[in-house]
Amino acid sequence: MTNGLREITYVDAGVEALREEMLRDETLIYLGQGIGPRGGNFRQTRGLWKEFGDHRLRDTGICELGATGVGIGAAMAGSRVVVDEVFLDFILEAMTQVVQQAANVHYSSNGKIKVPVVIRGAMGSVRNAGSHHSHAFYAWFAHTPGLKVVVPSTPADAKGLMKTAIRDDGPVIFIEHKGLYNSKGMIPDGEYLIPFGQAKICREGSDLTLVAVGRMVQLALEAAARLEQEGVSVEVIDPRTIVPLDRKTIVDSIRKTGRVAIVDEAPATCGFSGELFAIACEDCFDDLDGPPLRICSLAAPNPFSPVLENQMIPSLERVVSEIQRSLDS
Amino acid sequence: MRQPVATTQDITLELGLYKGMVELREFELKVQELYRDGKLPGFVHLYIGEEAVATGVCAHLKPNDLVYSTHRGHGHALAKGVTAREVMAELYGKATGCSGGRGGSMHMYAPEYGFMGTNGIVGGGIPLATGSALSAQLRKSGQVVIAFFGDGAVNSGSFHESVNIAAIWNLPVVFVCENNLYATETAFHRATKNTSVASRAAAYGLPGVEVDGNDVMAVYEAAGTAIDKARSNGGPTLIECKTYRIVGHHEGDPGTDYRTKEEVESWKRRCPIKTFRERTLASGGVAKEQFDEINLNVERWLEDAVEFARSSPDPDPNSVLDHILCEEPETRR
To answer: Which of A107, A117, A210, A285 could form a disulfide with A81 if both were Cys (CB 3.0 to 4.6 A apart)?
Structure first.
């Protein structure tokens, strides 16, 4: 074990962040389904109710529209709030409050009303949950001016970004990946925060820039390791926050490597991958040795059958082979 | 309770309520005129005919109490204490408006007066009001929160979910339904089987009260009871104020395609200002001249607001991207 570092799971890193922030700021409250005595469907609030009680951790009924609006309204009145949708999919019940109220109010009030609310939900495909529990639609939120969008890929990022999200005075959509909750990683011992808008270069390389968020970062790193065996040096970048986006780190990398691929668990159509594609063309056109490459989920509702879902979502084999093909062309 | 004989206190209250209603009425009549003359961008939904509700409710509120309003919200803003200058300037889209010209009629925010927004989404403010009440309860701030909404909102999930949450958590919020009988153009009885909004309170386990929303004293008394109850940890109340907008849904809608002229005329005869004035004069205590003086002062007040708005600067075009995101977080404190 490295000195000053310790191993922790992604989900427990989030619990630590919440605990530290609840101790630090007594106006911080947490609303959601089953986040009290149960400790959260994903164990994402384990132990907190026992320590902070009903006033700070409030179980709600199954009423995302009301509960999310209540969280936003509490934030507008002077509390600091985390609303947990549990599954990101369930935020659809509350989208009018997120998009029409939370995202707009600071702007429409000419900066007079702050909305310090974190709206948290777990995205993505895991264990073949089917089409109602597997969405990866974080780009919708990035498309809405007024929202910040965070998609952490490691325990260290989950903790540091959650703390920053809680201290932000505006609405932050905090999207974890269900498939990462049990993953482990090292985090610093002491308190730390990770600023928004700072991408992480997860692995340095010189032949191609590979950009990914959430669980796709792990896949990108595995693909980079595989490609290295074949003499291709891949630089892997995790933007960590979609809004604000660290355009500079991404652009600098593409200018260096001359090639860019994006791997995304969301479909390509009008998605984050298209945004990165556009950035590469706008800022790096003369530096590119080939067209940007998008490796995305196929544009289908998540199918139940493992065979079908594995076909839909980017796999290690698909990422490696599509990159190889683009390099050969 | 009111005394059988008018006391000084009664007279002060009556004059105050009258002034409040006349301000709201005259303001909206002026907005109607300006809008028809093409002076105001956007859309406006006028409060004409419903003045007794905002006036009677807001008369009880303290400056730091909070109000969440609707698309028909100019009256709520004024009744909560936002200045006519700031409301009018906002309707002009000027930099001096309460939202700096970023909001307009349906997105007016003035938290410095406890006014937390008109709202372009029917039912949109109800969960927010409920949440602000949760914050008030947890911070022990003593604030009461009012959610205004129309009959058009009560069939929405926002209403159902919020009232349910407020009841189970005993929140200091008062839900004030301005039942003007039409959701845009759809008559309430065509949209719901149970046309008593107040009776719905029983379903959530909180008190429901029905009042004549064109009787400012009735509204005042019902609201007083509910607000006192909320402030003393007694929990939420649902008040249904039966009222009517004697104008169209928005300025430009004649409002007669779906309502008979006879119906509109019958409600005009029940004008909350006219009936209150006549009743109060008949009961003695207030002299006609006192009312007339109020009318005169309101005229001046309104002229000042229009002049202020008209002569105010537009927002700086280069400020269009200001305030989209809040300031960077305090990551190092």
So the answer is: A117
Interface contact flag, B124 A70, Cβ < 8 Å: no
Known active-site residue A133: yes
User: Structure tokens of B312?
Assistant: 């105010």
For residues A328 and A173, the model is more confident at A173
Q: Tell the burial category of A1 from Cβ atoms under 10 Å away from its Cβ (0-12, 13-18, 19+).
A: exposed
Instruction: Yes or no: say if A169 and A115 are a contact pair by the CB < 8 Å rule.
Output: yes
In B119-277 the beta strands, taken as DSSP E runs, fall at 145-150, 173-179, 182-183, 186-187, 208-212, 237-242
Q: Which domain holds residue B46?
A: 8-308
In a domain, B274, yes or no: yes
Higher-confidence residue of B1 and B253: namely B253
Tell me the pLDDT tens digit for each residue of B300-329: 999 999 999 999 999 999 999 999 988 644
Q: Can you list the domains of chain A with their CATH numbers?
A: 5-188 (3.40.50.970), 200-328 (3.40.50.920)
State the CATH number of the domain containing residue B261: 3.40.50.970
Rounded Cα distance between A18 and A44, Å, is 9
One DSSP character per residue, A4-16 reads TEEEEEHHHHHHH
Q: Which residues from chain A sit within 8 angstroms of residue B162, using beta carbons?
A: 66, 69-70
pTM recorded for the entire structure: 0.96
Flag whether the ipTM exceeds 0.85.
yes
Contact B165 A63 (CB under 8 A): yes
